[in-house]
Specification:
By secondary structure, the chain is an all-alpha fold. It folds into two domains: 406 residues, Growth Hormone, Chain: A, CATH 1.20.1250; 69 residues, no CATH class. The chain has 23 helices and no strands. The two termini are 29 Å apart.
Length: 486
């Protein structure tokens, strides 16, 4: 579906002052906060606590919930939350529930001191809880964004969302680093209290998202959707999801300890065995789901309406082009996601301090990303979206090569700023255009499910590969690592 252009450049920029754009800016801030509390800020905390680099990067897998959110997106689309949905509507009730869960997860992380293996397990579980609740928040925000405005406004809403998202990242990235340093965190002397208070402060900031949710209006499109399934059917579907999630975790945890087994076999063997571990968990979930349907434990029609029909609709509308579209979606953001997992560790290994990283990367870099997002939002309206996708993807790959140069230069602030500014400007432009592109692919009948499927596919392979970024760097070095993703 093409994205209609505004009549003038002035009209395009004026769209950023629309109340829906402002709401998406604030919701984007709430959505951007959790990511770095799982990725880079947590990585630096764990490194200062003495955790090995390969283990640190594996914590990024807690964000894999973002890549599998299409699995429970139908629950968000269909299942009402007792008391809340009746009073607030389906989108706002799920949004409030997700935001409260996010706050509790971050507070829980603050009270974990990751200095031994047992504490690391608790931290991993809470990080996973944060990833699950944050991904759920994203499902609802994406659905709200698509449903609250016509297609011609989607690129502008996407840009506002990206801007808010990046501001949230500044806060949980640079803000967290500055605050932790101010409170006494140091690479030379680990200070748990500094990181504890930092994460408690981050948890309090989710009140911004809660306040926005309470003040905004429910999309009218939802009032036109009537489902005939019983409350018991919804309850059984929710129970199935819990069982599947438990089965996935159990299979993954009790699978033979492949990390130990493959310690002498090299990186390729480690990756292969971990892939077997992952796919074994997926297969076990599939078998559980199939058995539940065959035995009548869940309503087969409900399963079809929530999972099968939205996917079938996409392939019916796009035909042979559907596969090509999914390939583009799956690999478009591989450069920035994979490199982003280990970027802070990279800067730290080059000798840059936390304050230098916070200033160059988490402040200047993110502000430049916001500028790129606003430019991308306007360009997506003024020019052909597919052409802008190609330009954004090409620039993202080329700017990644600047980090190869930085790896050879070592500690050099001018080169750091050049690489960061170029990379973030193109990343912001590409992200805004890409979100508008994904929104245009979505059928309003299946908003949450289809967009969750697209955004999940967008991050799945890059995040799986990102979990091994530390091990890859150990084997090939930083220069070769930054050449590989493009």
């Amino acid at each position: 579906m093409p994205i209609a252009p505004q009549k003038t450049w002035r009209d395009s920029f004026a769209s950023y002052l629309d109340r829906r754009s402002i709401a998406l800016l604030l919701l984007g801030f709430s959505a951007g906060l959790p990511l770095l509390l799982i990725f880079s800020s947590l990585s630096l905390w764990l490194r200062e606590a003495g955790v090995e680099r390969s283990t640190v990067t594996m914590f990024s897998w807690a964000a894999l919930f973002y890549s599998f959110k299409f699995i429970w997106a139908p629950l968000v689309d269909l299942v009402p939350i007792p008391f809340l949905t009746r009073r607030m509507g389906r989108r706002r009730s799920w949004l409030i529930a997700a935001q409260v869960a996010i706050m509790l997860s971050v507070v829980g992380m603050a009270f974990i001191n990751p200095v031994n293996e047992q504490q690391l397990i608790y931290m991993a579980l809470l990080a996973a809880g944060l990833g699950l609740s944050a991904a759920t928040q994203d499902i609802v925000i994406d659905a709200y964004r698509i449903e609250c405005a016509p297609v011609k406004m989607q690129s502008m809403l996407a840009a506002s969302y990206v801007a808010g998202y990046r501001l949230g990242m500044i806060t949980s990235g640079a803000g967290a680093l500055y605050l932790a340093t101010f409170l006494g965190a140091s690479e030379d002397a680990y200070n748990y209290q500094a990181w504890q208070h930092t994460y408690l402060a981050m948890a309090a900031l989710f009140l911004v998202g809660i306040g926005t949710t309470l003040s905004m209006a429910e999309p009218k499109v939802l009032s036109e959707q009537n489902h005939t399934f019983r409350a018991q059917d919804y309850a059984q579907l929710s129970a199935l999801f819990i069982v599947l999630l438990s089965g996935f975790i159990a299979t993954y945890v009790f699978f033979p300890k492949v990390i130990t087994m493959s310690g002498k076999s090299g990186l390729l063997a480690t990756f292969t065995l971990e892939a077997l571990r992952f796919f074994s968990a997926v297969i076990s979930c599939s078998l559980l789901a199939s058995a539940s349907i065959k035995t009548g434990w869940v309503n087969k029609q409900l399963v079809f309406a929530t999972w099968v029909e939205p996917i079938a609709d996409f392939f019916k509308r796009y035909g042979k082009q559907a596969v090509l579209i999914l390939v583009i979606v799956g690999f478009y953001r591989i450069t920035d996601i994979v490199a982003g997992v280990i970027s802070n560790v990279f800067y730290q290994d080059l000798g840059f301090s936390k304050n230098e990283i916070a200033t160059a990367v988490k402040t200047v870099g993110v502000l430049v990303t916001i500028l790129g997002g606003f430019i991308g939002g306007v360009f997506a309206q003024r020019f052909n979206v597919m052409k802008m996708l190609f330009v954004g993807g090409l620039l993202a790959c080329l700017t990644n090569l600047l980090f190869v140069l930085l790896s050879y230069k070592g500690y050099n602030l001018p080169y750091l700023y050049i690489a960061v500014v170029a990379d973030n400007l193109t990343a912001g432009l590409a992200s805004a255009v890409f979100i508008a592109f994904l929104s245009s692919l979505t059928n309003l009948r299946f908003t949450a499910v289809q967009y969750a499927l697209f955004s999940s596919l967008m991050t799945l392979f890059p995040k799986l590969l990102g979990g091994y970024s530390g091990a890859i760097v150990d084997n090939v070095g930083y220069a070769n690592f930054f050449i590989i993703p493009p």
